[in-house]
Amino acid sequence: MTQTIGEGDDVLLYLSRRRTYLVKVEQGKSFHTHKGYVHLEDLIGKDYGTRLKSSMETEFVALKPTIRDYIFKTLRKTQITYPKDIALIVMFSGVGPGSLVVEAGTGTGALTSALAFYAKPSGHVYSYEVRSEFIETALRNLKRAGLAEYVEVRNKDIVEGIDESEVDAVILDMATPWLVVAHAYSALKGGGALVSFSPTVDQVVKTVEALEENGFVNVETVECLVRRMQVARGKTRPETLMTAHTGYITFARKAIAEQ
Questions:
Q1: Which domains occur in the chain, in start order?
Q2: Which residues contact 16 (CB under 8 A, 6 or more apart)?
Q3: Which tens digits make up the pLDDT trace of 206-219?
Q4: What's residue 18's pLDDT?
Q5: 104: number of Cβ within 10 Å
Q6: SS (HEC) of the chain
Q7: CB–CB of 8/25 below 8 Å?
Q8: Quick one: pLDDT at residue 244?
């Protein structure tokens, strides 16, 4: 079914791969760029994918935003988790519709948004964050992405304990994940997943040691590197610049102790 753009809908205005703009369509509102302005009300009733011209006759395309677009366009007070890492985190954790997920820390809500997107409509994310100013930003980002109802943000240090029990996954993006491993074991269902994202090897070593000491199995650590290609007939090659190391992802499953 073709989707049309309505007033109040978000639209991703595509100019080029490096220049996109996430805007809300409203009556009487214009969006200004270095390539001229566009009347956003002209999009009301049009299909996503519609081409439109700016005041300088530059062509834009009105696309429906994906969860990736919302993540990249979040209001930022901290470094976001990159989609390349989020994809592996979601895959390793097994998060899907109906999953109950504990996350720490919330940060800007980028990873939180992805977890909520895949856990909805019957799942829920419980996100722990110690800094209240981050929570305010994250809640605004979650609301804009239409995901706030699937997330409960707790202003609490997860090192002190996890309030939830029988959860499907615990996702950690914090400085000291090894201090949460025992709490995560108690909160998880049997066979539940723990996934930890850490930028340094020292953090990984401490986390893996804690996992092995606390009854987790299938412990694995990976690093994800993505290299874009410059594609043109006769001169296709890797792009000169790339986002290389962002962090290491450690995955483990809870094994129930012998009765």
A1: 10-65 (3.10.330.20), 69-254 (3.40.50.150)
A2: none
A3: 999 999 999 999 99
A4: 86
A5: 26
A6: CCCECCCCCEEEEEEECCEEEEEECCCCCEEEECCEEEEHHHHCCCECCEEEECCCCCEEEEECCCHHHHHHCCCCCCCCCCHHHHHHHHHHHCCCCCCEEEEECCCCCHHHHHHHHHHCCCCEEEEECCCHHHHHHHHHHHHHCCCHHHEEEECCCHHHCCCCCCEEEEEECCCCHHHCHHHHHHHEEEEEEEEEEECCHHHHHHHHHHHHHCCEEEEEEEECCCCCEECCCCCCEECCCCCCCCCEEEEEEECCCCC
A7: yes
A8: 85
Strand partners, 93: none
The predicted model scores a pTM of 0.87
Rounded to whole angstroms, the Cα distance separating 73 from 13 reads 12
Strand order in the sheet with 19-24: 19-24, 10-16, 59-63, 50-53
Q: Select the more confidently predicted residue: 35 or 17.
A: 35
What's the pLDDT tens digit per position in 51-75? Answer: 999 999 999 999 999 999 998 887 6
Question: Phi, psi at residue 192, to the nearest 5°?
Answer: -65, 160
pLDDT in tens, 74-83: 766 566 788 8
> What CA–CA distance (Å, rounded) separates 77 from 60?
29
Q: Rounded to an integer, what distance in angstroms lies between the CA atom of residue 102 and that of residue 254?
A: 15
Q: What is the Cβ-side half-sphere exposure of residue 113, based on CA atoms within 13 angstroms?
A: 29
Question: Under a CB-based contact definition with an 8 Å cutoff, are residues 193 and 217 in contact?
Answer: no
Cβ 127 vs Cβ 112: under 8 Å: yes
